[in-house]
Amino acid sequence: MPELTKKGAYKLIAIVALLITLAWFTLQIAWVVKLLAVSLLIVYALYPVVLFFKARLRLPHAPAVILAFLLFLLFTIAMGGIIVPLVQNETRSILAEIPFYARQIQFHVADLTNYLQGFGLEREH
What is the DSSP string of 24-86? Predict the structure, then answer.
């Protein structure tokens, strides 16, 4: 194995420092990468709509993009307005029924315990 020289040690330290800096930088801009990925997905999804507006409505590119984006925002807000109240209601009903579910589980555990005791199995203490 070759001996590590002073110059080689400096190179190794520089490489390790560069890798640590690169990892830190990647973590710092992770939100930008996520935002860019979501933006690209939205553009990919809206591109056929833009083409439709350009072909059927004979709109120039910029107004077609603006119209498609506005429709996307309207759709997103409408879905949020529909889905959020549904989730809230379902969460409330589930939370209200937790005591019932707990009792049901206790009954099932008691039935299972009685069933297993029929085989001579006892609970460990």
Answer: HHHHHTHHHHHHHHHHHHHHHHHHHHHHHHHHHS---HHHHHHHHHHHHHHHHHHHHHHHHHH
How far is it, in rounded angstroms, from Cα 41 to Cα 66?
17
**What's the confidence (pLDDT) of residue 71?**
96
What is the spatial distance between Cα 111 and Cα 106, in angstroms, rounded to a whole number? 9
Identify the CA nearest to 46 among candidates 64, 58, 30, 32: 64
User: What pTM was estimated for this model as a whole?
Assistant: 0.56
Alpha-carbon distance of 69 to 75, in angstroms, equals 10
Long-range contacts of 67-76 (CB under 8 A, 24+ apart): 72/42, 72/45, 72/46
- Count other Cβ atoms within 10 Å, centred on residue 50: 20
Q: Specify the 3-state DSSP secondary structure of 108.
A: helix
Instruction: Evaluate if residue 90 carries a pLDDT over 90.
Output: yes
Q: What whole-number distance in Å separates Cα of residue 122 and Cα of residue 43? A: 63
